[in-house]
Design goal:
By secondary structure, this protein is an alpha/beta fold. The chain contains 20 helices and 18 strands.
Length: about 450
Amino acid sequence: MIKVLIIDDEEKLRSLLARIIHSQGFEVIEASDCKSGLLKLDQNDISVILSDVKLPDGNGLDLVQKIKTKFPLTEVILMTAYGNIQDGVQAMKNGAFDYLVKGDENEKIIPALNRASDKVRLQKRIAELENQLEAKYDFDIIIGSSEAIKKTISLAKKVAPTDSTVLLEGETGVGKELFAQAIHYASSRKNKSFVAVNCSAFAKELLESELFGHKKGSFTGAINDKKGLFEEASEGTIFLDEMGEMNLDLQAKLLRVLETQSFIKVGDTKPTQVNVRIIAATNRDLKKESENGYFRLDLYYRLSAFKINLPSLKERKEDIEDLAKYFMNVYSIKLKKRISSIDKEFLKQIKRNEWKGNIRELKNCVERAVILSEGESLTADLLPAEIANNETSLADSSVTSLAAMEKIHIQKILSIAKGNKTKAAELLGIGLTTLYRKMEEYNIQK
């Protein structure tokens, strides 16, 4: 039941209002002055306040400000015996929901209470949804108790409240976007947009338009003005994944955004101003890339103002069991299966696997096992052959170089994807352009 607090020093009028409002289904609490009214607010979950402007120990106009500062979701309706425009305007500026004249506008009190109650309900629902969203992306959702992941989370928590640019480094599939989201939702920008873009998913021309927008007629097909993702993320955070895939021309434009918080849209002549935090991610060594001329050194230094290296799964093997159980629960619910445990042999085999695709590969593996399972436990026979036979194949292999192992892994995933490059790139956790580059580098037949 919606609680209404009436603050008025005229006892007879207050009692009459209380009876009328109670008859409309509201729970009513009474107070005779500012001090007792504020005390009632502290003691009860009040949704709407109906207050006189002139009170024995203060002014209702000032009281509104105090209430809205401490209880922003509570709505205040002010009443006065002598209404004037100036006080009405000031009441609204101070945060009042409505301003009514006693006697002349008595019939407006209940409709005003109903509207205020509706607004409070909506505000509380929005706040509840925002809290759920923050909980979904906060640091508690990051699974693991290893020292490696705890140190990484600690670093991310320290930089989150700032506006500093963050560079997340790590192999594909280690959870860089999850960390970026957690950093955003632990910052002062949490109520603004979080925009994620994979830089390897677009051709050069398209990526520039996606990031910075374009003016109508700037190129064939540009039939309207378009806002870029930087504009969409203004006041919030933009997450630039696969930064190593961005070409040098775009890198120069990004450097300008970092330095001036402005950019020029494709086909435009004047700059667009934004206020955006940048979180970048890469699976490459950008410093080494810059030394080889593939990445701007000045941009690298700007991006790496605060650098966090995310550990690979092989660096936090003690977390594999917790992660597997988490994914088992997620996919059991999603696929409506009654799976409650993982057998010892399944755990033994996944713990000795290399997991070159890291958490993403483990997640796909567990999802596959849940799909195939017909019982209440995940058993070793549900694992893909390459994982089940991993120990033997590693023992028999004479391959020792990382590059050679990467080539074998890419060939294996291409085989699993039946030659589908898009699917293979998804399973590997890399961009399609990166896959083609790797295939060319290792001379893997297309």
